[in-house]
Structures are given as C-alpha cells and as structure tokens.
C-alpha cells in the first residue's frame, strides 16, 4: 500500500494558473511561488465583490483519539465530491505546523486519495508564512529587550513582561529559560519562555485581520508588559507596529494550491485549536466565499474546541455563519470513547462499545444544534469496521435527528464522498440557517461557565488564585467584554484528557487568564495544557529522509 507522500508524488499536478482559472482568477491576480502554488494578491481580494449566495460548510469532529478520525481528509474529499457534483467549490484549510509534522500528530494536508498538493511543500516550509510569523514574534521580543537595555523610557518592569518568544517546533527545553546572562553588554537578565509559533498572538492576529490596515491596528494593540506601577504597555507605545506589519505583509496574502483532483484549495494560517482559536484565516475564507459557490472549511480538533471558536470567535469577524456543519466520526474512535483499548480495536465487532462511545458524538451533535445550524455526520470508514457497527452509528444519529453518511474518501477520493456531498447539498437546500451565538455580552466568568456547562457537560468552573487576580485586573481595565478562547485538552470534553466519552458533573479549573488584545480575546488556560509542546519518544522526524534526487520519504 502506498504511503500518503507516495500517492502525492505520483499524482499529476496542474500549473497553478489553471487552478486559479477555475475561480476566475488570472495570472495577474497571483504571486507565484514556483509553478504549483501562489499567493492571491491583497489588491485582487479587495476588488472582489461579495457574493451572498455562496454556501459555507464547516467540518469538525468528535474528540480526537489515537485511532485517528481523518477530519482534514474528509474536508478535502467533500470538496472534491462537490466538484464532481458540478459545484464551483473551494476548500479553505489551515497551514500545517512543523511541530506536529516533526512530532507525532502528522501534517494537515489530508491523506490517501484525499490530499492537497504539493504535499511535501505544504507540510514543510510552504510559502514561508510560519517563518514570517516567527520572525515578527521574535523581532518584537528583541525590540522589547533592546528598549529596556537602551534606557527603558516606557518604564517596563522586566518581571512583568507578557510577550514570549516563539519557535515553530516542539521543544520542551524552551518552556522556561533565562536570558541576558554573560555581563552588562548582553542585555538585562530575566526569565523568559517560548510558545510554539501557532500559539503566538501574531498567528491569531494574522488569521483575524481583514487587510493590512487592520493588521497594523491589531499589532499595535498587543499587550506586551506592565510598568513598575502596573500600567499596561502596548506595541504602539514602542512604535514598532509598522515594522511588524512589514515583516507580515506577504504572509497576510492567502495561499492557493490544489487537491489531487485539482479542486482549488486556499491554505492559510494555522492556529492550534487546543491553545488558540483553531481556524484558518478570515481573509482566506472570505476570499473563497467571493470566488466559489460552495466553500468547505474546517476547525481544529473536536467541536468542543475548533467549532465552538469558529462559531463564537470567527463568525462575528467573518460576517457569515456556516450553512451546514459536518461532524466526522469513526467506528474505531467511538469504540475508544466506549472503553476499548487501542490495542484491542482489531479484535472484532463490538456494538456495545460503539453504543457507549456514541455518547461523545451525541454531545457534539447536541452542541452544534444549540447554534441552530444544520448538521450532518460523516462516518469515515475503516476496513476494520463491520456493517453492523456502521449501521448502529447511523441508527443512533437518526435518533438525534441528523443524517449519517458512510464516507470512503481516503480510499476513493471525491468519488468516495459523493453521498456525503449530496446529503450536505440537500441539507443546505432544505433548511434555513438561523445561526444563534451561544455567548452574548455576559461577564467573562459567566461566559466561561456557559461553555463549560452547556458545551462540555460540566457542572461548574473554579478559578485558581492567579486567575482570580487576573480576572479582577481584566474587569478593572474593561477588557472583560472580549470573547473567551478556551485552552483545553483536545482529548476530552473535560479538562482531564483521560475522561473519554461524555463526562458530566466535573468542575473545570481555569489556572490562568491571558489577555490577547490584538487578537481581541481572552485566553482561558485550563488543566495542564501547554503552549509549547514536547516531542514524543519516537518523533515522526526519525522516519523522514530525502535522497540524492531530492525525493522525500517518511513524510506520512
């Protein structure tokens, strides 16, 4: 059986200008990065008229498991299937991070015969967006330290610097560091730490900005420190928002590539959903909606994280709610949520475990229904499934009032998603979207409580002493009206990754509240979630290589 990278390497790939033509874009609208990928010019995007009739499909999933759900694979396969149905379609995805690519999770370019290409380039350096974000993040860090070294006119307290350095790799050794050692000429000694680039506020800002003016405005609002008398210091106080915008001006432009079936795909931005807001850029999605009749996008991890943030954080910025939500599930994952160990997934039919694990899927269905958006379940097929298990999932979905469609896009590409695509089209055409936000103008803690009790199934929220102090500061400075971005384990609806299925009556602990004023939200850090992951015992990097001809191997 061919690996994902072998399938991608052997697939025919069209010149990017031919992909652009499918969206009525010309070569003049593009900034080519070689022959097979390009950026779409901001000037072009600005001139494109808004099309209110375009349909938006959000793909999400149950809580992820080590068995794999294939959300990106289903997103791409659904886009290809809609193209086969004669719909002018564009796919809008996040960019992969080198952290999971070199670590354990893998890339974000799909799999099997449902991929975006050139797969190797997308999963590695692509068009340099991640590096630009990393450079801007660390330029700001250097400018802050230099500001203090050169006399500190803003009176920054080095003990209260909020801004962290960043690196687009998993590196646990950088979670807590000391800098400025070596004498007076090497800066001011202080403690510091690193985030992974996809957790940087600059990543979130890039993905929420609508143009260069908005980008610069947001960068200027970043809270970087406090003074000795506890007054906030912003990027604008240092006067460096222009320089940061300069570093990001090309990265702000969305990237155009293609699927194996040559469906246009706009791949741009990549915040993680467990520690950031988990959606591709507003600019990319808006562009896709202006160019295509059907746009398929995804949000990271399960619906409790990415989809919630898409609906509560991104939709108000985007100005459009999804016309349909697709929840991806697998029999294998439902078994794991139902108590079967990973080692025992191949031991045969187990409808009892499927029924028990369905509690997780049921909760996600109910959660999406709270937003009053039509919902469809995509059951991503695996060869280990039995017809009885698949039929049981469909039956249980029907009891919840949603359609469940068996999907085989990994094996058959778009052809394996025709039934899903037709069901999605029929669902959109047969329903009126009455999207209703879950959160309003309630106080910050009340909104966190709403998410925990109504979406996660918990009973209560408790704040650590540090978070209580931060909440008082946030309220005093009148930042408590900002949306909340939950940073939580992806593996469970709770803040305990070991609580699978649909736990209830738990109390979720918020250990820290972090204002991200440029992005425009408050991050609530819960449980043991980290903003700089570590590598596993056997990183994926150990299997990767390139031969003397430049052919990549081991990349999934």
Structure, explained:
With 556 residues, this protein is α/β, with parallel strands linked by helices. It contains 20 helices and 25 strands. The strands form six sheets. Strands 1, 2, 3, 4, 5, 6, 14, 15, 16, 17, 18 and 19 form a twelve-stranded mixed beta sheet that branches. The chain has a four-stranded mixed beta sheet with strand order 20-22-23-21. A hairpin with a 4-residue loop joins β22 and β23. α4 crosses α18 (418-429) and α7 packs across α8. The longest helix has 21 residues, at 129-149. It is globular, with a radius of gyration of 23 Å. The mean pLDDT is 95.
Helix/strand layout:
Layout lengths: L3 H6 L6 H6 L8 E3 L5 E3 L1 H6 L7 E7 L9 H14 L4 E5 L4 H5 L7 E2 L2 E4 L1 H5 L5 H21 L6 E6 L3 E3 L9 E3 L10 E3 L1 E3 L4 H8 L3 H9 L2 E5 L4 E3 H4 L2 H8 L6 E5 L4 E4 L14 H10 L2 E5 L4 H16 L5 E6 L1 H7 L13 H20 L4 E6 L6 H13 L3 E5 L1 H4 L5 H12 L14 H13 L3 E4 L1 H12 L7 E4 L19 E10 L4 E6 L18 E2 L5 E2 L3
Parallel strand pairs: 3-16, 3-17, 4-15, 4-16, 8-11, 17-18, 18-19, 20-22, 21-23
Antiparallel strand pairs: 1-2, 2-14, 5-6, 6-14, 7-12, 9-10, 12-13, 14-15, 22-23, 24-25
Helix pairs in contact: 4-18, 7-8, 7-11, 9-11, 14-15, 15-16
């Amino acid at each position: 059986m061919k690996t994902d990278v072998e399938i991608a390497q052997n697939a025919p790939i069209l010149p990017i200008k031919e992909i652009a033509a499918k969206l009525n874009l010309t070569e003049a609208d593009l900034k080519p990065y070689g022959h097979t990928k390009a950026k779409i010019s901001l000037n072009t995007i600005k001139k494109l008229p808004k099309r209110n009739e375009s349909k938006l499909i959000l793909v999400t999933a149950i809580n992820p498991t080590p068995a794999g759900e294939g959300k990106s694979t289903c997103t791409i396969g659904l886009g290809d299937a809609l193209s086969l149905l004669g719909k002018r379609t564009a796919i809008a995805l996040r960019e992969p991070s080198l952290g999971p690519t070199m670590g354990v999770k893998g890339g974000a370019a799909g799999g099997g015969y449902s991929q975006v290409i050139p797969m190797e380039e997308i999963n590695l350096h692509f068009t340099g967006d991640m590096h630009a974000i990393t450079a801007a993040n660390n330029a700001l860090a250097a400018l802050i330290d230099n500001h203090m070294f050169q006399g500190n006119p803003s009176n920054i307290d080095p003990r209260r610097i909020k801004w962290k350095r960043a690196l687009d790799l998993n590196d646990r050794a950088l979670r807590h560091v000391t800098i400025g050692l070596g004498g007076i000429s090497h800066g001011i000694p202080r403690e510091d730490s690193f985030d992974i680039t996809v957790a940087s506020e600059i990543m979130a800002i890039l993905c929420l900005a609508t143009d260069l003016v908005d980008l610069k405005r947001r960068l200027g609002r970043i809270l970087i420190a406090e003074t000795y008398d506890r007054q906030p210091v912003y990027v604008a106080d240092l006067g460096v928002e222009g320089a940061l915008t300069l570093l990001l001006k090309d990265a702000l432009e969305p990237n155009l590539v293609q699927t194996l079936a040559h469906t246009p795909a706009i791949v741009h931005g990549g915040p993680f959903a467990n520690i950031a807001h988990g959606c591709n850029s507003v600019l990319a999605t808006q562009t896709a909606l202006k160019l295509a009749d059907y746009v398929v996008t995804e949000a990271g991890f399960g619906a409790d994280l990415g989809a919630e943030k898409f609906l509560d954080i991104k939709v108000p910025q985007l100005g459009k709610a999804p016309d349909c939500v697709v929840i991806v599930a697998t029999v294998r994952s439902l078994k794991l949520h139902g108590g079967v160990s990973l080692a025992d997934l191949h031991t045969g039919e187990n409808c009892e475990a499927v029924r028990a694990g369905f509690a997780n899927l049921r909760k996600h269905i109910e959660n999406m229904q709270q937003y009053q958006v039509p919902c469809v379940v995509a059951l991503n097929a695996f060869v280990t499934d039995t017809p009885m298990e698949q039929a049981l999932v469909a039956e249980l979905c029907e009891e919840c009032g949603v359609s469940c469609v068996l999907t085989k896009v990994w094996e058959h590409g778009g052809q394996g998603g025709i039934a899903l695509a037709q069901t999605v089209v029929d669902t959109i055409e047969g329903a009126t979207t009455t999207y209703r936000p879950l959160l309003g103008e309630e106080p910050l803690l009340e909104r966190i409580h709403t998410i925990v009790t109504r979406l996660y199934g918990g009973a209560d929220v408790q704040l650590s002493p540090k978070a209580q102090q931060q909440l008082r500061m946030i309220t005093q400075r009148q930042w408590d009206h900002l949306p909340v971005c939950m940073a939580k384990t992806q593996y469970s609806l709770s803040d305990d990754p070991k609580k699978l299925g649909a736990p209830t009556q738990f109390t979720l602990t918020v250990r820290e509240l972090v204002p991200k004023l440029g992005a425009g939200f408050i991050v609530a850090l819960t449980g043991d979630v980290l903003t700089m992951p570590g590598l596993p015992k056997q990183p994926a990097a150990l299997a990767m290589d390139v031969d003397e001809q430049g052919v990549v191997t081991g990349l999934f």
